[in-house]
Amino acid sequence: MVTDHPIVYPTLGLVNEAGELAGKVKKIFRDKAGVISEADREALKYELGDVLWYMAQIATELDLTLEEVAAANLEKLFSRLERNTIRGDGDYR
């Protein structure tokens, strides 16, 4: 098994940082009735920055820009909307 591919580290970093973001959101709802304070907002901003950084690293390793990724996602979502398949499961609906 090859684990030294350049995409491995940023992918694991992305998952880790997304988990940290989710954990902070969970605690806001668990402990603060979903009320996001200014301090919470700042903490979430930094976690989102970490997520964005790792996403950018993965895109770089794949020779993609974040603009390309965003445009492809919008195209996919608009296609689903036009075909009335915006809901449901599966990547190719």
Walkthrough of the structure:
- The protein is mainly α and 93 residues long.
- It folds into two domains: 1-62; 65-93.
- It is 70% helix and 0% strand.
- It is built from three helices and no strands.
- It has helices spanning 8-31, 38-61, 66-82.
- Helix 1 (8-31) runs antiparallel to helix 2.
- The longest helix has 24 residues, at 8-31.
- The model has no long low-confidence stretch (mean pLDDT 93).
Rounded average pLDDT: 93
Largest sheet: none
CA-based gyration radius: 17 Å
Give the amount of beta strand, in percent. under 5%
Number of strands: 0
Structural class: mainly alpha
How far apart the termini lie comes to: 32 Å
Q: Determine the number of helices (DSSP H or I, runs of at least 4 residues).
A: 3
Draw up the topology in text:
Elements: H1 8-31, H2 38-61, H3 66-82
Gist of the model:
The chain is mainly alpha-helical.
Annotation keywords:
93 residues, mainly alpha
